[in-house]
Amino acid sequence: MQLIERAGPDTGGMGRAQVRDAEFTAYLAARQPALLRTAYLLTGDRDQAEDVLQTALAKLYLSWDKVRDRGAVDAYVRRIIVNENNSVWRRGWKRREHATDVVPEGAPHLDAYDEGTADALWQVVRTLPRRARAVVVLRYYEQLTEAETADVLGISVGTVKSQTSRALATLRERTPADLDPREEER
Amino acid sequence: MTRSEDLLADVLRERAEGRDVRGTPMSDVVATAGRIRRARRIRAGVATAVVVGALASPFLVDAARSPDASTDPAGPSTTEVPPPPRLQDLAPGAPPAIRWIDGGDVVASDGTRVSLPFDDVTRATPYLGGFLVARFGDPRLVLLDDRGREVWRRCTTGALGVSDDGSRTAYTTVGCGGGDPVLHVGPTLGTDDEWTAPVPLADGAPVGLLDDGVVVASMNTAPPALVRPDGTARSLDRLGVAAAVNEPLGLVSGNLAGSAERNRTGAVVDAGTGEVLWSEKDWQLDDFSPDGSSVVGVELDGTGTRWGVFDARTGEQLHELATPAGLQIWQVAWEDADHLLLATTQDGAEAIVRVSLDGDLERATELVPAGEGARRFALGANGFR
What is the pLDDT of residue B373? Predict the structure, then answer.
């Protein structure tokens, strides 16, 4: 590369708010699709996911200057999403929400692994208690470690383990025989 | 993982990633943030009312009407400005006549390109014969030599400052794990030594260079300061934040320190005396024109579409401009005495837009899809042609 010995660009003239908005907009552009998917898995409802995410992003925006570690923003916003989702549910704003705090009796029991397995599994995920569903989504979609999941949810690693175990057991009970609980670890 | 865990991961991925994704525009996020902020203030008011009893009633009324409350994005200003066209509707014009960044290329005003060995450059400026480069998502500056070889990488607190004649550049370094930032000022060309000085602000970064020092500003609440080569510093405490410096006239633009209302008041101070020359409520001031005679600002009306150009010394509004609604503006720079360049995104696309002081809009670059990470286009600053 042959560099030219001539004055060049600098972008340092922006005000603080503009810098903040530029940073935030960049974050929005980069991470919003992934966060919306996570919110969708947590809420089980597209519109609710958008509502929850918008509120979470707004709260993130208000706190943007306080989040000094930009590498920790995802964890921070995931925590807000989870909390906001729980708040929405507690406020009863979205009674069409499918998740409950108790696994409903008589949830569909499928005993055949076929092309409908994904839908069947998804239906079972939607019936998981809210915290268990959050654990499942963070562990198996976001691929967070148990410690990271515990941090996001504000619970202990032991609780993450037990929630995971119970959630998997529920899924095995209610989904096709291929998901036999006696399956071998790979 | 067990087979059920694998399948669960697959199902979640398929279910989530099979969705169409409709992004929430920044404007909606800001509007929601405003509602949340208002609600918090009302809750705070209610809490205060419980504590102070009857005295709280006036507070609650004041809180609802307070300047703080007005910091939330509100409706458009009462002065009607015809809505400008959308980004994709703008006619293509000439490329920027100042240096700009196109992906990993630094483009000179004559179109000459220097390809840097990165494709996510957010800032780049000549330094010590090479380039100082900042990259998207990386807290470190990289110094490249004149052959593009990496000399060092150091964590930094933010922006680069360049003198009007382009001969001097200022940047900061800080320990990647934290610590006190250090200001470095050195020659753009050649190999003269740089001078260094402690930055008296925890996360201070250069705003611009004046004859007798460098103005640094903080992302926190500490006021900006003028740091001199001998290591002394003088606080510009009338300002809460500094946006730009005016080297020919020795002025600094920014917003006032103090209450929320003052924070929403744009101001120009004399760097020599620290005194406020003028201020304008509900405006955020930004860069000075190349000759220093005027300064551009944006009205804090929640839309980000109303811009003004003010006389730098008196505050008289000389021009009123409008930018397309929903346009996300990343950077603003004067191209010449009559034009501004805006690095923008809208509707999933990005471009650099030229705005004339007559209000005409055109695209100075092609319209390209906005990626999910770094922007492709960035602008240079005043004084670079």
Answer: 64
Q: Chain B closest CA to A140's CA: distance in Å?
A: 5
By C-alpha distance, the chain A residue nearest B348 is A29
Best mutation target among A4, A5, A16 (most B Cβ atoms within 10 Å) is A16
Number of H helices, E strands in chain B: 4, 29
Residue B132: CA count within 13 A, CB half-sphere: 32
Cβ–Cβ under 8 Å, residues B33 and B41: no
Nearest Cα residue to A35 out of A57, A64, A20: A57
Query: CA of B48 to nearest chain A CA: how many angstroms apart?
Result: 22
Choose among B116, B373, B381: nearest Cβ to A12: B381
Task: Give the span between the Cα atoms of A184 and B242, in whole angstroms.
Answer: 63
Q: For A47-105, how does the pLDDT look when each residue is reduced to its tens digit (9 = 90+)?
A: 888 888 888 898 888 878 766 566 778 888 888 888 877 765 544 433 333 333 333 33
Q: What is the torsional sign of CA A59, B243, B365, B162?
A: negative
Beta partners for residue B362, in sequence order: B354
Per-position DSSP letters for B264-281, written without gaps between them:
TEEEEEETTT--EEEEEE
Is the whole-model pTM more than 0.90? no
All residues of chain A having their beta carbon less than 8 Å from the beta carbon of residue B106 are 8-9
Cβ distance of B99 and A7 shorter than 8 Å:
yes
Token pair for residue A125? Answer: 């995920």
Cβ within 8 Å, pair B158-A19: yes
Alpha carbons B126 and B124: distance in angstroms, whole number? 7
- pLDDT band at residue B104 under the 50/70/90 scheme: confident
Asked whether this complex has an ipTM greater than 0.90, the answer is no
